[in-house]
Amino acid sequence: MNALLHAELLKLRTTRTFAAVVGTAAVLSLILVGLGAGLGVEKDPHALFTNTSITYIIVLLGAIGMTGEWRHRTITGSVLAAPNRLRLLAAKALSYSVAGVVLSVLVTVSTMAVGTLILEIRGEPTLGGGGLADVLWRNLAVAALLGPLGVAVGALVRNQVVTVVSLIAMAAVIEPAVQQVAPHVGRFGPLAGAPGGILGGPEAGGLLAPGLALPVLIAWAAIAFAAAAWRLQSRDLI
Amino acid sequence: MAPVEFRGLSKRFGDFAAVEELSFDIEAGRVTGFLGPNGAGKSTTLRALLGLVRPSSGSATFDGRRYDQLEQPAARVGAVLEDASFHPGRSARNHLRVLAATGGHPAQRVDEVLSAVGLEDAADRRVKGYSMGMRQRLAIAAALLGDPQVLILDEPTNGLDPPGITWLRGLVREQADRGRAVLISSHVLAEVAQSVDDVVVIADGQLRAQGTLEQVLGGDDGPATEVRAQDPGRLTGALERLGLRVERDGDVLHVQGATPAQVGEIAGRERVAVLGLAPRVRSLEEAFLTLTGAQS
């Protein structure tokens, strides 16, 4: 499993996609935090340091990484090198979990540093060590789970464009709409509902409490992974 | 036990039978040509052998074990499939590093196989800039990573230029001489004829012939002779009275079922002057067309 995980992380590092996404995400986050704190648009440091948009990039990265195996037809070579498809899928899911955590740490820590500096200069309240740690674990937890979720959805759908468009539609349109119409249902959603509960903090209204949102998101990731594993194992690679 | 065994292998896709009851062996130290027209079921057979498609019935094994049951499959079997593809944004070296890590091969094998296929100077270029021939060489490099005992090549000459094809012939011969079993599928018969020891011919998913190249070239109708006679009509009558099949082409007779010595003896008895006499060896093309029922 270690060898497979090493190989999957190597795949991530040896194309420009991941580096480009990480770099773009980090720069955009710093700009947004700089503007938010500098212009006084967002004065709540908890909200300022919560990387909602970054965490959704992870789910797309996972989906692109998995569907890329079919798009570039590299899935055949991958399965030849590692014929245990369950382990192969698990290694890819784990690699995107690791990638999500790394990306989230980079972005969260850098935005916290820049944001805290700006808030202190402006004389606004900042978060202490405990508060920063609270934001950090929420960001990391969501990033660690959404990467594997994206991999699993990619393994089920296979078509890269369809997968990416579906995930964006789900996160940006369908789930928010369900949350408006039926909030008691929408707050259990996999891309906006449960992640929102984890990221939003205990005072966030209408969302699941983090202690419940976390196991709900874990369940979504596990169900998607199980379905993807079953489909991948039963599929003929022709 | 042969290194590779097919036993009653069948694969159906819905109502379509891609492969039906295939049984044959691949021996170590020999190059086996796996022949058939396009759509014969060659790629499906190889994919079933490699665990990429599930057989509907029967088995395809390495030393009696399925590919996914081998302890280190990528070190035991190297394969180049017809649609070998690579991430276009990854360099050849990185592609091989990924496969080496996945298959548990030593990292230094990457440089060794890059050198073996002549790609060392282009190793750090992204694959999207590669020609088809270079991609094919990279696929072969990937197959050689584990220094495998069994090498499976599906239409490996696709995209290779003449020097590349010559290089590939040398490579498969060298692998066989080192005791490896090599299975090479192709529909380009002339290329295979110069490379293989044994031949397996399939068509419509069914086995049509197998044996050494000479056996398959000779056909399954026994010996055949070409004879040029001064009185071909009289000799034809004599041969046909003995139950032999004769096809006449001008003054040349194609005699099926008799050796040149037998034909010469019959001609002597009939006092027909023989102007030329030779064993008739079918070309692989001819054998292929006959065996597969394909149209020339």
Describe this structure in words.
The complex is a heterodimer of chains A (238) and B (296). By secondary structure, chain A is mainly alpha-helical. Helices cover 81% and strands 0% of the residues of chain A. Chain A has one domain. The radius of gyration of chain A is 18 Å and the shape is globular. The relative contact order of chain A is 0.14. Chain B has two domains: 4-218, P-loop containing nucleotide triphosphate hydrolases (Rossmann fold, 3-Layer(aba) Sandwich); 224-292, 2-Layer Sandwich (Alpha-Beta Plaits). In chain B, helix 3 (92-103) crosses helix 4 (109-116). Chain B is elongated and about 75 Å long. The mean pLDDT of chain B is 89. The chains are: A mainly alpha (238), B alpha/beta (296). At the A-B interface, helix 1 and helix 5 of A face helix 1 and helix 3 of B.
- Helix fraction of chain A, binned, reads over 70%
Low-pLDDT residue intervals, each spanning 5 or more residues of chain A: none
**Unreliable segments of 5+ consecutive residues of chain B:** none
Major sheet of chain B: order of its strands? 5-6-7-3-8-9
- Under CATH, the topology of the largest domain in chain B can be stated as Rossmann fold
The number of distinct helices of chain A, counting runs of at least 4 residues, comes to: 11
CATH architecture of the largest domain in chain B: 3-Layer(aba) Sandwich
Number of domains of chain A: 1
Strand tally of chain B: 13
Computed Rg of chain A: 18 Å
Order of helices and strands of chain A: HHHHHHHHHHH
**Could you tell me the radius of gyration of chain B in angstroms?**
23 Å
Q: What fraction strand of chain B? A: 25-35%
The level 1 CATH classification of the largest domain in chain B is Alpha Beta
Amino- and carboxy-terminal Cα gap of chain B: 38 Å
Q: Could you give a short account of the major beta sheet of chain B?
A: 6 strands, mixed
Instruction: Determine the strand fraction of chain A and express it as a percent band.
Output: under 5%
Overall outline of chain B: elongated
